[in-house]
Amino acid sequence: EAVLTQSPGTLSLSPGERATLSCRASQSVSDTYLAWYQQKPGQPPRLLIYDASSRVTGIPDRFSGSGSGTDFTLTISRLEPEDVAVYFCQQYGRLPPTFGQGTKVEIK
Amino acid sequence: QVQVVQSGAEVKKPGASVKVSCKTSGYTFTNSYIHWMRQAPGQGFEWMGVINPSGGATTYAQKFQGRVTMTRDMSTSTVYMELRSLRSEDTAVYHCARGFFDVYYFASWGQGTLVTVSS
């Protein structure tokens, strides 16, 4: 199965700063079959991005995704306090679908 | 709007079975696959399998083959996941999620059901 490795494990930034989260796959995930989710404490995950770069309706445009093959990035252009959460990637190009371990985003 | 509501927390003894329900509403039940994932304490998400509500066909992760069964009730738009021969390592929060039609990313998630396996 495709193993997804996310980095960094924790990202601590000030409001307004740019957050760059990485997700690397152990094998190609069939071009752009990658999604990003946001999970806040006590809540289920929320889908942010699918097909590597397509933003879900209603998700603020400060969230963007890029990449293909084995290397993917989620960017939060200007960090807001409500963005504090764990973000994880998921590939669906190969069975079984697999998830990264997550990146925790904190506000300084 | 789409809603996915799961049954409540369960405590089971090793060797027992658990059956978790996932009631959906706000969309056409047969249009989207329903997936099950779990997240053990301090771990990432693990995909367990999927059911196509239209016809009931299932695909299970190899790890759970022979121990899990997913079924659906068309009259109530509810999907069930039964896990048998429970062991302590099965202690986790179990989530159902609606896929995007037959694509394996997860558009709407249930709130999660904590299953604790303890003697």
Largest sheet of chain B: 7 strands, mixed
The percent range for strand residues of chain B is: over 45%
* Helix/strand structural class of chain A: mainly beta
How many beta-strand runs of chain A? Answer: 11
Into which percentage range does the β-strand content of chain A fall?
A: over 45%
Largest sheet of chain A: 7 strands, mixed
As a percent range, the share of helical residues of chain A equals under 10%
Mean of the pLDDT scores of chain A?
95
Structural class of chain B: mainly beta
Radius of gyration of chain B, taken over Cα atoms and rounded to an integer in Å: 13 Å
What is the CA-CA span between the terminal residues of chain A? 36 Å
Q: Which residues of chain B form runs of ≥5 with pLDDT under 50?
A: none
Distance between the termini of chain B: 41 Å
Rg result of chain A: 13 Å
Summary?
The complex is a heterodimer of chains A (108) and B (119). Chain A has strands spanning 4-7, 10-13, 19-25, 34-39, 46-50, 54-55, 63-68, 71-76, 85-91, 98-99, 103-107.
Give structural attributes.
heterodimer, A: about 110 residues, mainly beta, 4-stranded antiparallel beta sheet, 11 strands, about 50% strand, B: mainly beta
